[in-house]
Amino acid sequence: MYKDHGLIIRAIPYSDSARILQCFTETKGLQALYIRMPKKRRLTGHLTPGSFISFAANQRSGSSLATLMEARWDQNMPTDPLSPEQHVVWLFTLELLQKSLKEDFPLPHLLQRVRVYYALLSQQQIDADPLVALVSVSGALGLSDVQLVSQLAETSIKNALEQLGWRFEISSSTRQPMSRKELFNLECDRFQQHFGIERLESLYLFDL
User: Fold this and answer.
1) Mean pLDDT of 39-61
2) Regarding the domain delimited by 2-73, which CATH topology (the fold level of the hierarchy) does it fall under?
3) For 60, phi and psi rounded to 5 degrees?
4) Which of 33, 113, 147, 181 could join 21 via S-S bond, C-beta 3.0 to 4.6 A?
5) For 138-170, how does the pLDDT look when each residue is reduced to its tens digit (9 = 90+)?
6) What burial class does residue 108 get, using C-beta atoms within 10 Å of its C-beta: 0-12 exposed, 13-18 middle, 19+ buried?
């Protein structure tokens, strides 16, 4: 048995009495967790996508699937409920992670950035802006030039990225600023092309 912390990205039906949870973990990266449950019962509370958990699991040697033995909400994360606007941008963040993470490839710096983002978001200390979520995930994956984005974006976007731990050098760049919509589309296209994604399903939730 091993213990770890992580973020549930997705729940996949396995049978009437079992689910597979895709969990972005601290030590193993994306981990598939098998969980048994009463027939027809739905996942609730801390076992739903978007939840941060502390858990214990058994994993057989040579298997990529681990059996979830116990789990609870990560006590280091706030439990404040998300507003509808915050929930929408959080769903978008989960989709970005779901479509970019690989199994057994730890990215603790990305998980930590997402943890900070969720904490600020749930406590209403950061704007629920999809561009901030996109650049934070993409930047942590090495796809976005966050320094350049800070030069092209509105001041509110730069301030939000600084709240998430990004540090920017003073620049004398004469680049023409871009609208939030133009910058979002540019970063979104880069993300999709890199991972071969035809469509991000959650984009319809935003008025961009």
Assistant:
1) 82
2) OB fold (Dihydrolipoamide Acetyltransferase, E2P) (2.40.50)
3) -75, 145
4) 33
5) 999 999 999 999 989 988 999 999 999 988 877
6) exposed
Distance, CA of 91 to CA of 50 (rounded, Å): 8
Q: What is the rounded CA–CA span in Å between residue 149 and residue 115?
A: 22
User: What is the DSSP code (8-state) at residue 126?
Assistant: S
Q: How far apart are CA 157 and CA 76, in angstroms?
A: 26
Model-level pTM?
0.91
Q: What is residue 1's predicted lDDT score, i.e. its pLDDT?
A: 86
Contact between residue 128 and residue 160 where contact means Cβ atoms under 8 Å apart: no
Which 8-state DSSP code applies to residue 196?
T
Asked if 77 contacts 118 with a C-beta cutoff of 8 angstroms, the reply is: yes
pLDDT in tens, 61-78: 777 889 999 999 999 999
Q: Which helix (H) or strand (E) holds 169?
A: none
Rounded to an integer, what distance in angstroms lies between the CA atom of residue 204 and that of residue 103? 28
